[in-house]
Amino acid sequence: MRHIKLFLLTTLLGLTACSQLSHRAPVSSGLSVSRTGFGTLSNGADVDAVTLKNAHGMSVTLISFGATVQSLRFPDKHGSVADLAVGYDTLAGYETTPGFTNVTVGRYANRIANGNLVLDGQKYALSLSEPRNTLHGGSIGWDKRNWTVKTVEQTADKVSVTFTLTSPDGDQGFPGTVVADVKYELDNNNDLSVSYGATTDKPTVVNLTYHSMLNLSGIPAKNLATDAELTIESDAFLPVNEVLIPTGQPLPVAGTPFDFRTPAGVTQRARATHPQLALANGGIDHNYIIRGGKTATPKPAVTFEDRQSGRGLKIATTEPGMQVYTGNFLDGKIVGKAGQRLTKYQSISFEAQGYPDSPNQPAYPSTRLDPGQAYAQTTVFHFYLLP
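Above: the chain's sequence. Below: its structure in token form.
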């Protein structure tokens, strides 16, 4: 009887150990998530940092201030890991610098002409964050807010963090209280998924984006970010006026430096002679119309490959537009990671979004959000090594 009891006890312990091992499966997958502090803002608020890691040397650190990608590390063709995200080593850089370095932009990404918003006959005067325009949500956009960490999760195949923010009625002139979430999720396929959700209690407009500023060769930059080949799933872009507001009618990319239907080097195209490039300070700062428009699931939008490092990036998105910005306005005044001054073409941005100035352009896809509706967007950044 004693032997039987011992056998049963041993079996039970073994089953318990197996159960615990199964529960801890995410650890054995090479995925991990950790949370720490990233300093204190000038108003005394603490900023959280959450780091997501996978089994292939990729890691992403997110901070609650601006729901920002503070670092994005990925190996090159030699196995050397580098940070690909333009930004700052300390919190002070994010709090005091006017740039949009890998932040979450809202309540409205890109520009609204003259800060003019009219909904149901009611006119709203929005905060002007540059001469004549509301850019990226106003003078104090969501990139300058300290979001709350809502959840930190780890499963067998993914690690994630979700940030949440409540934007009150009248924030930067926008109507309606908007509750927004952004979820950053990393897996072992080297996919960084960025998913947004938002609701409102009054009619408003919502257009969110992750304002990436990347350099596939690594940060601090040794090479121009634009010294790489770009492909965009787009046949037309939105030309702009002298204050970078779309003029209305799309312009076919064929026969212009904006044609990336097949792979082409970005630096040469950005430096080309074209009236639209001149308006953007000698580079690209335009919204491409992605084939397929707004979709329920992410569709291919961008392929970006840096032969020197051997790193590649593919972007798929549910959004109808992709703002491409080649860092044309970086003039060396801003000091980034490791004390490096940020200069022209040192970063490239891919911002999945609705069209700029949609509230004032009836022909554009609507960015209106009403009570009872849910705003949703997913954009996936897939990193890989070139063959």
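The radius of gyration is 22 Å.
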